[in-house]
Amino acid sequence: MLVPGYGGASLADLPGALLVALGVHDGDPSVPEPVPSAPTTPNEPGTPGTLNSPLVLAPAERVCLFLVDGLGAELLRAHAEAAPFLSGLKSRTLTAGFPATTVTSLCSLGTGLPPGEHGMLGLTLAVPGTGHLFNCLRWTMPDGLTMDPEQWQPAPTVYQRAARAGIEPAYVAPAEFEGTGLTRAVYRGVRYVAADTVDERVARTHQAMRERPAHVTVYYGDLDSAGHLAGWGSEEWLRQLAIVDDMAQRLAEGLPPGSALYITADHGMVNATEKVDAETTPELAEGVALIGGEARARHIYAEPGAAPHVLEAWREVFQGKAWVVSRQEAVESGWFGPRVREAWLERIGDVVAVPYTGLAIIAPSANPIEALFTGYHGSMTSAEQNIPLLEVRT
């Protein structure tokens, strides 16, 4: 088990370090003090962490963050020949955070807080007191119900902090994401720059980087999509990796003097070798009210009084294949960070199931497309947790 290195070497520590590199020292709590990594529970393998050193980046007048969805550090190393530019850069490794999934990581990047502080604790989460699941990526609930982004994720963003310091942060991404619930939850305070093609994103990033100081984030998501559909390492995935490599080189070549380009990711990926249907397996369905999370990081919400039985049943079925713990064990083991705000506790499943083999725990009726995937992420394996932090400076 690779418990994320909150307080130094995690994705949540990067945005605060970027602001400090730009000269912003506002004492905001989203720049955390170093904290000890929490020990694992007796039911899990893993090594208790040590004190994490803060993430420190060299000063720069302009900062660009190239966020590549699904670019795991181990995946990149395994196919270095397909990405010669990226593979030749100065590199260090961060951990994504738990779960290793886009909504959680984007919110960690947007707030500079670990998941237990910002509350985006999984892909699909129970809304306490409603009996409904909320999809944090698509920002949807059943029966036409809606969720206010500022209510679900009320923490101030690093972009708002940058704006207070006189920096106008820009976010360059496809037009379809502008104004969505997720964007409003995690990117409050940015100037959204819509750009659909690679050429448009490169050009508009270069334009935004002419400002001094500059704080620009550019997003690319097709590598992750290829991994889900065809598997990481597939021909289509390698084609997308080559596109990412070329895009990174073009971004670097157009940087003005005094710039720093950082390339990172939100998570890695594994290819499934086994799938178990949690909806139709009797032992897994008994006493279960809702199945949330995703295939590699399941939140299981029990019917009243059934949590101990559900925990025992899921542990028995997935013995030797997944870490299966209670909500309390997950929180106390530091999976979501040094602490979880009390208001967010009931968003976590009564039981949390996290595969560490090639297992995907699917729920086809609730998530039919996900059930068909080849590549998955979310767990605390090194392939899913380890993400690169690559650097180019001018």
Describe this structure in words.
The chain has 394 residues and is an alpha/beta fold. The chain has 2 domains: 11-117 and 139-270 and 380-393, Alkaline Phosphatase, subunit A, CATH 3.40.720.10; 274-376, Gyrase A, domain 2, CATH 3.30.1360. It is 30% helix and 22% strand. The chain contains 16 helices and 17 strands. A 7-stranded mixed beta sheet has the order 2-17-8-1-7-5-6, with helices on both faces. Strands 11-12-14-13 form a 4-stranded antiparallel beta sheet. A hairpin with a 4-residue loop joins strand 3 and strand 4 (132-135). It is globular and about 60 Å long.
Please specify the SSE layout and strand pairing.
Elements: H1 14-21, E1 62-68, H2 73-78, H3 84-87, E2 90-95, H4 102-111, H5 115-118, E3 124-127, E4 132-135, H6 149-152, H7 158-164, E5 170-173, H8 181-186, E6 191-194, H9 198-208, E7 214-220, H10 222-230, H11 235-253, E8 259-265, E9 270-271, E10 274-277, H12 282-285, E11 288-294, E12 297-302, H13 307-317, E13 322-326, H14 327-332, E14 351-355, E15 359-362, H15 368-371, E16 375-376, H16 382-385, E17 386-393
Parallel strand pairs: 1-7, 1-8, 5-6, 5-7, 10-15
Antiparallel strand pairs: 2-17, 3-4, 8-17, 9-16, 11-12, 12-14, 13-14
